[in-house]
Amino acid sequence: MYDRNFMEGTRGTQAVDWEERIDVKRLREERFNKALQRLEDTDLGSLLLVSDPNIRYVTGLAMTGGSGADHYTLLTEDGDVVHWDTADHASNQRFNCPWLDDIRYACPGLGNVPRASGRDSARAFLTQKMADLVYEAMEEYGVHTEPMGLDVDTGLVGAFENNGVDVRTKECIDLMHDARKVKTRDEIECLRQVAAICEAGFQQVVENTAPGKRESEIWGDVTKELWRQGAFVGGGYLTSGPNTWPKHQANTTDRSIRPGDIVYADMYNIGYLGYRSCYYRTFSVGKPTQAQQDAYEIARDNLYDVLERIEPGATTDEICKGFPDMDGEHAEWYGADEHWQMTTNHWAHGLGLQLYEMPLIWRGLSPDHPIEIEEGMTMAVETMEPADRQGVRVEEMVVVRENGVEVLSQWPIEKITQIDY
């Protein structure tokens, strides 16, 4: 097993002066330097970042969504940063974010604002104005004659081309993927901390699940605890009984819990300092049936078969063989013919400032499009199995170490968590 060093291990969510915890200044600086180094290795003069996770990666700003491209960031090859945001956000950032010294008011050239404007002329105005604002900054910082990377492939490209800018989207997207795929020590600790917070949520499932309680009531107790723990709750759900196979389209519903139900909770998109969880656990209301125990054992063993294959240098085409084949996927029940039709059932996906980062390990993709696993990658690995017209799901959050994986999630996984009532 991986032997943790002094830094590694959750110690609390508050800042203190009497022990080392997550160093947020180091977190910001190391991420920024990784992105800048990769920019310096290209012939690009700057990057324009519109994707929220990329903006946070470079600036450290808490991107919580908005009405469209009303926030965006320019990073130059010399390490200069210009950030545009809405009037209220920009005003707050100028006061609260002293590490950024050039914050400007944004024109929303993409997304909901142009869409809601109702006229093509209004949309063209907003898009071109956004491009003009960025071009003015590029001129100020002396990068306007060099190629610019853009992390979204949109109509914004044409607006920049009107100003004579050589826009390169693929190069920018690949650059940011490369910067973000291997995590720093503080990024890993953020994921360890959010896993611990999710476990406080699982405890609420144990304490509040009983016959007659509705899924929505229990999930309300869970989310209250997650917020109390300092998390950002951007997703997640709890489902029960027949809603567990297949997973219900509405996720959490007003269904009442009954004796003998399987209940599982997915703590996905729960954030700590922006780093997102994805963490399933299964519970039984009363003693699980033998069929449910057998199904759970299959799902757990499949998950750990995959985990045992993950190490630096391994490739995803080989690792994905640990996931079930089409028979194990119960493809006949779904009426499916190929693995790509079974999205989200059995796979591993990268974790970071968003749920789906590199790598992705999946029978629907990896056999023909493999990538190599690197030390420091973080991911969630998930499996499932039906039982008695219900289903079980399990998932672990892990980081790739030099000789395998370290499991960041610690809620017991050996057997279904039994809830007595």
TrEMBL record:
Pfam family, one: Creatinase_N
Residues annotated as domain Peptidase M24: 189-402
UniProt superkingdom: Archaea
Gene3D superfamilies, sorted: Creatinase/methionine aminopeptidase superfamily (3.90.230.10), Creatinase/prolidase N-terminal domain (3.40.350.10)
Classification via InterPro entries: Creatin/AminoP/Spt16_N (IPR029149), Creatinase/aminopeptidase-like (IPR036005), Creatinase_N (IPR000587), Pept_M24 (IPR000994), Peptidase_M24B (IPR050659)
CDD domains: APP_MetAP
Domain called Creatinase N-terminal: residue spans: 31-105
PANTHER family the record matches: AMINOPEPTIDASE (PTHR46112), XAA-PRO AMINOPEPTIDASE P-RELATED (PTHR46112:SF2)
Name of this chain's protein: M24 family metallopeptidase
Species classification: Archaea, Methanobacteriati, Methanobacteriota, Stenosarchaea group, Halobacteria
